[in-house]
Amino acid sequence: MTTSAQTVIAPVRAGTAADSVTARRKQGFQHGGWFVAPFLVLFALFVIWPLLRGVWLSFTDANISGDSASFVGLDNYREALQDPLVWDTLGHSAYFTLLVVPCITVLAFLLAMLAHHIERGKWLWRLCFFAPFLLPSTVAANLWQWLFNPGTGMINYVFGIETPWLTDKSYAMLAVVICTLWWTVGFSFLLYLAALQGIPGHLYEAAKLDGANAWHRMVHITLPMLRNITGLVIALQILASLQVFDQAVVMMDFLPGPEGSTRTFVQYTLEEGFTSYRVGYASAISVIFFVIIAAVALARMWLLRNREESAR
Amino acid sequence: MSTAAQPRKPWTPSQIVLTLLGTAVSAAFLAPFAWALFTSLKSETEAVQVPPHWLPEDWTGQAWKALFETGNITNWFVNSVVVSVCVTSVVLLVSALAGYGFARTEFRGKSALMGLVMAGLMISPAVLGVPLFTTVQQMGMVDTYWGMILPQCAPAAMVYILYKFFQGIPRELEEAAFIDGAGRWRVFFTIVLPLSRPSLAAVGIFTFIASWNNFLWPYMVTNNPDLMTMPNGIATVMNSYGIQWAQLMAGGLMAGLPLIIVFVFFQRQIVAGVAHTGLAGQ
Amino acid sequence: MGRPDLNRRQLLGGLGGLFVASGFGFAALGTGADALATDADTRVRYWNLFSGGDGYNMIAMLNSFREDHPAVAVKDSTLQWGSPFYTKLAMAAAGNRAPDLGVMHMGRVTGFSPGRLLDAWDTDLLAKYGVRKQDFNPQLWNRGVIDGKLYAVPLDIHVQLCFYRKDVLKKAGLLGDDGRIVPVTSTEEWFDVLKEARKATKKGLQTIGLWNSDQNFQWWFFVAFYTQLGGTWFNDADTDVTFDTGKATQVLEFLRRHITDGYANPAFAGPAGAEQFVNGSPFVWEGNWSVPVFDTAKVEYGATPLPPVFGRPATHAESHAFVLPHQSDRGGPANEGAHQLAAYIVRHAQQWALGGHIPAYRPVLSTAAYKKMSPQNEYVSAMDHQATEPKVWFAGSTGILAQRVGPIVVSSTMGSARPETAARRMKSELTRLLATKNPMDGRTAAQGGAVA
Predict the structure, then answer these.
(1) What Pfam families does the database record attribute to this sequence (chain C) (predicted)?
(2) Average pLDDT of B48-68?
(3) I need a labelling partner for B163 at 20 to 30 A (CA). Which of B20, B188, C12, C288 fits?
């Protein structure tokens, strides 16, 4: 890699022992390239290259066979902006996100409070709330498909209702959301739990001495102390929820749900690429999606920085 | 841990209420598992009886037997193990090296590369599936183990987590070793790595869970049923021939139980691992 | 740190290393598994998309081929049905790594760029191995002919059927002396049958399951009844849409009426229809692949093609067909082996009928063994009354046409759009699709020249 001037010069100047020590100390931290190289190779091959390739393909009419693509300029993007399915499916993913994120955040917090405050059997509560997260998405989806199954499913039976969860467009996405809550809340729950355990106990004791009741302690100590973690949970959930795919397709048997109501954006890109064979167009809408995801991620970074600055 | 030494805490009314509440919520969380288990012990006909009932009238292992006799589930299990083990070990090695490289060494273009890696946090197969697929296809790796494994081996997030961790290790430890004449690689393997065992465990555990449960990428890159992993095989092959719920539930439990059992035994490490990897994103 | 501790750690480390190493060993093996050499003179690589019960039957047929023809080594790969299968086949053909023989849905052949991604069959060679046009339903055979060349050899047709429970229908007085359902020839008769059947149905069960919310099934049913009405899609040159919204409305109203009259419960709109059937619901419309499912469930049932309520019998039919994925150097023994293998399986499709499919090779249908198969013998007539999708590039099993138009049918059946509105939407979607270019060759249906 790079031969820095210092390494070359160091031995020459090594007049005193102290100098030599400094040089060696510095030398130790040189030439990090080799440490990073293996990762960079994989990263370049499977992240950067596909990204560049996707951008290139999005300007072509490439099909799935991989041959004879020709440059079509902005045609794919122009089409995407007018494609009602792009907007519909973006809407579905956004709707899913809008439902999942607040529910998961609140639920995870409540579960964490519960598990934190019960003095006995902590490991048991942790296990119960976290176990679903250890299932593969497809298994969780199959499980809820079975629970929602009309006639033979337990949900309708237990609650004595006849809701067409999976076959009516007004319930289908809700069913996917419920499955997702059960399946993934455990992760955010653990984050909250760890954060709760990290709150210094003396804060509470001081408040108790001041006569604050449990509610006040929660509002004035717990919630502010959990502000960072809440921001993190929300950000992670937004990014993950926008990319929803697995649960929706498996619960709907790989179809877009009743009247297309659970077709998510990821599902649409894959349909365009692999069912309609339109790799160029699928790449274009993937790039659009990437821009949206990146915007969300950057917005979070920006918010974080602002907050840090105002805290200073 | 230290609870054993302390005297047992008394059952205050609020503790009783909380415990009851916890029990109820836990029951709700576990009920789907129980339903899956009971379904898997019914005959296919009994499973679809209307109205449903919790416990099988005829307890039968036919679904489990059929699962092993007719399906490729043992193949899938082996494939899942192979893929997850390979992904986890490559990720650990590669991201530990890279994290250290970024945290503690100097080289030209470091900050630019670091920025690139941060940008990589936003890219996943869900976002760039189609171009990633055509790339892997060009390399001739569709329907191979490598095709499943390698694209999962460049997680920018794990590099970032370890980078943060390595930054927190006091420099003096390494400097002392350098002064003693130790090479950089020796310092890395004999001093830095042992110090970071908890972080490595966290990254390893998290990677293993993610890889074991990964569906989207294996789904895109394999369609040979012999090469599928558990989540993929269950979702695609088992679902495609008239859903047999008892078998499907048995298969789902097969796919989910290994991690849950592991969790019961290594709970402390896994909880720390998940929390650690998650919290590092702060 | 005591010694035992160190030993244990070493042991664990060693075991872990071994575990990881064997993982990588496995991974390395998996890459090269396809390169297995063989001693046989001819080696035929064959990709099929059959797993489950169909896979079992296919492998049995392959094995009997292997016994009869030891000189031909068949290397079969089973791939999962669905879009990835077509993707992979397309890319292998484009990248010149295609297998010698493949399976596809007939309706997808036109869109799969025949001539570029698919090679034409050598009809003389097929005839040598006993497969000739006259042994097939001509309409079915011609679906595989494009620009005058044969690109697909049909193995079967698979059709949408009306399954009925004999026990319930007997109670309702709807079984004839032959133990089969009474014939139905008009919509009124059909709804009368449903009315009687409902009276004999256990409480809590719906009368008929018809996948109201499933875009594929609803689309298939639509194609069937629209064909019964003599409806057409496009003109011969594929330049104009001839879709008849009046007829379409009639079909959509018919489908919708099952729900408004309370025979099909929207709560059981999906696969639950089959479960209701097993529980005692009298009717379900399903694909013939449900035959083994209901056999296993030990249901006393029969199955007919979809009722000819608009006069002319027709039921939706798709077909599994053998294709030759493009190889730039196609020819020689492997190619002849592919012809031989395909011909053999087509001609020995008795076993295939166990999966409910109707063998395409008609001599099989007249064997005593086939005539004994029940309920296969009850719906074999479907072979002569096939309702198929139009022969355009965007058609085919779960293809773009079904994906775009199917949801519109569902919206009418489920009641979120009026039948007339849905029919109009279908027409405008068909118009749009007709003007769309096939991504494989950049030509529209009219320019494609893909029609025989």
Answers:
(1) SBP_bac_1 (PF01547)
(2) 91
(3) C12
Of A61, A64, A254, the CB nearest to C82: A254
Q: Which residues of chain C have pLDDT under 70?
A: 1-19, 21-40, 81-84, 449-452
Question: Closest partner residue to B107 among A31, A57, A228, by Cβ?
Answer: A31
Can you give the pLDDT at residue B174?
85
Q: Is C316 exposed, middle or buried (0-12, 13-18, 19+ CB in 10 A)?
A: buried
- Domain segments of chain C as ranges: 38-155+319-380, 160-315+388-444
| Choice between B102 and A307, residue whose per-residue pLDDT is larger | B102
Max avg pLDDT among A17-21, A177-181, B112-116: A177-181
Q: Which domain holds residue A37?
A: 5-77
Residue C64: the pLDDT is 95
A157 and A231 in a common domain: yes
Q: Exposure of B78 by Cβ count < 10 A (0-12 exposed, 13-18 middle, 19+ buried)?
A: middle
Domains: count for chain A: 2
CA distance B130 to chain A (A): 6
Residue among B45, B145, B243 whose CB faces C271 most closely: B243
Q: Which residue has the higher pLDDT, A121 or C389?
A: C389
Within 8 A by CB and 6+ apart from C417, the residues are C408, C411, C425
All partners of chain B with 3 or more CB pairs under 8 angstroms: A, C
Q: Pick from A77, A102, A127: which residue ends a domain?
A: A77
Query: In this structure, are A161 and A144 located in the same domain?
Result: yes
> What pLDDT shows up at residue A11?
39
The answer to whether the CB atoms of C30 and B44 lie below 8 A apart is no
Q: Are B136 and B195 in contact (CB under 8 A)?
A: no
Contact A167 C212 (CB under 8 A): yes
Q: In angstroms, what separates the C-alpha of A15 from chain C's closest C-alpha?
A: 42
The percent of residues above 90 in pLDDT, for chain C, comes to 70
Q: B238: pLDDT confidence band, cut at 50, 70 and 90?
A: confident
**CA closest to A270 among chain C residues:** C83
Q: Identify all chain B residues contacting A157, using CB atoms and an 8 Å cutoff.
A: 51-52
∠ CA A12-A17-A20, rounded to 5°: 45
pLDDT band at A90 (very low <50, low <70, confident <90, very high): very high
Q: Taking residues A217-236, report their average pLDDT.
A: 90
| A35–B175 CB contact, under 8 Å | no
Nearest by CB to A25, which of B50, B106, B175? B175
State the CATH number of the domain containing residue A134. 1.10.3720.10
Nearest CA in chain B to C89: B223
Q: Is the pLDDT of residue A3 over 70?
A: no
Indicate yes or no: CB of C439 within 8 angstroms of CB of A255: no
Contact B31 A154 (CB under 8 A): yes
Indicate the average pLDDT of chain A: 87
Amino acid letter, residue B71: G
Q: Are A193 and A91 found together in one domain?
A: yes
Q: Does domain B67-279 have CATH number 1.10.3720.10?
A: yes
What are the residue boundaries of the structural domains of chain B, listed by start?
Answer: 67-279
Q: Residue A65: which of C91, C279, C414 has the nearest Cβ?
A: C91
Give the count of Cβ contacts less than 8 A between chain B and C: 88
3-class SS at C164? Answer: strand
Distances (CA, A) of B114 to A36, A160, B200: 10, 56, 20
Does B234 contact C at CB distance below 8 Å? no
